[in-house]
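= Protein in question =
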Amino acid sequence: MTTTTAASSRPEPELRGQTVVVIGGSAGIGLETARRARREGADVVLVARDPNRLEQAARQLQASSTAALDATDPAALARFFADLPAPIDHVMVTGPGPHYAPLAEASADDVRREIADHVVLSLEIARNAAPKMRAGGSLTFMGGTGGRRISRELGLVSAATAVLPPFVATLALELAPVRVNLIAAGFVDTPLSASYFADSESLERRREHLRATLPIGRVVEAADVGALAVHLMTNTALTGATYDIDGGQQFVS
């Protein structure tokens, strides 16, 4: 008779022996993705602008290495990937947040920045990362569900949101067998989301509204998005698609 112990019944960590690079990995969704990846046995490389926050995150997670750089700087990004030991398996990119302004008030630089931040940045990362990646590895980018609505207040956000799904699908074809996917999030309770509110009372009102109206009955957290990101890394049948995670927000707003 064979006795199954608690230790032997635990599933094998799904990312053991793999390397996950998280760009924007010092806080919020990036940090939680890295935390989940570490829990699944991955070695993680954290990239972010702020060296102090990056150092704190690296200590928390026992990251393999870190790089403090501005990912929107093409030269710095190219150097980072060139110096990164190969092979790597997965890259997660949280990217900058949206810029809300009416189109009529946007300057030419605003337009370039909004499109570049969401498309050109992703393309530069893909170009530099893919040659270092194992077959079946993955690139995961962040988009949103809120920008699917058209409104004066959203301005350029709607255009930037609309271009990402076909962009990611095309990349998935061109970079195969590296897989490419997009996460489209609604409101996620992170420091970045909090920065869009005038004060803590306004933020808490938003949270209360979501708790009362979302089908899931709670606010989506960074850890929820991190769990989805790691699933996209481990499920090798997934590529070229957009995965919504907003707690049903787009259906009740």
Notes: The chain has a mean pLDDT of 90. The beta strands are 19-23, 43-48, 65-68, 88-93, 133-144, 179-185, 188-189, 220-221, 242-245.
